[in-house]
UniProtKB/TrEMBL annotation:
Annotated signal peptide: 1-20
UniProt keyword terms in alphabetical order: Signal
Name this polypeptide is given: DUF4245 domain-containing protein
PROSITE patterns: PROKAR_LIPOPROTEIN (PS51257)
Keyword check for Signal: yes
Organism: Cellulomonas humilata
Domain of life: Bacteria
Length: 184
């Protein structure tokens, strides 16, 4: 092996080691875990635990602490159905306004962003805590794959939503082309 070859091999080995150190697994950045469920792929902080059972279509639940100590929760609908992102969002927002979020109010809403692989909407909202406590904040994303029409949803809620958590969750959302069956 020549000196040049050894240098190239060393650089490649160091680069691979550095890349491995930056990942929380399966492409997630350090401190995060990439979760795949149904058609949904999303990054969740490493130290978050499984959350309480939720009502359909929300079957994925992670939170930042156990039980009542949790201040943030991520909910996922990994097989929302066959929708364009804005249609899926409309369906979910209607159920949030009518069915279960006291004093629900949309704060901001984006038009669908289509990257070719993913069409994604974002809705920022607030609602009243059921115990009469602080106003809670939330972000709802609905993503769909333009080529298959498969749609997923992710919702992040809490008393405070750190920008870095919101951005990583948003940037990691993907719709996978799996054989999962949509929720009824």
């Amino acid at each position: 092996m020549t000196s040049y070859s050894r240098t190239v091999a060393a650089v490649v080995a160091l680069t691979l080691a550095a890349l491995a150190g930056c990942s929380g697994g399966s492409g997630a950045p350090a401190g995060w875990t990439r979760v795949q469920d149904g058609w949904l792929q999303v990054d969740v902080p490493d130290d978050w635990s499984d959350g309480a059972s939720l009502d359909a279509p929300w079957t994925l639940s992670r939170q930042d602490a156990e039980g009542d100590d949790a201040t943030m929760q991520l909910a996922g609908a990994p097989t929302l159905g066959y929708y364009r992102a804005d249609e899926g969002r409309g369906t979910l927002l209607a159920s949030m306004q009518v069915g279960g979020y006291p004093d629900f109010a949309v704060v901001d809403q984006s038009d669908p962003v289509d990257t070719g692989e993913l069409e994604l909407t974002r809705t920022d909202f607030t609602y009243a805590a059921q115990d009469g406590g602080d106003t809670l904040h939330g972000v709802l994303w609905v993503g769909s794959a333009p080529d298959t029409g498969k749609a997923v949803a992710v919702q992040l809620t809490g008393t405070d939503l750190p920008t870095d958590v919101v951005e990583q969750v948003q940037d990691s959302i993907a719709v996978l082309d799996t054989e999962a069956t949509p929720a009824p």
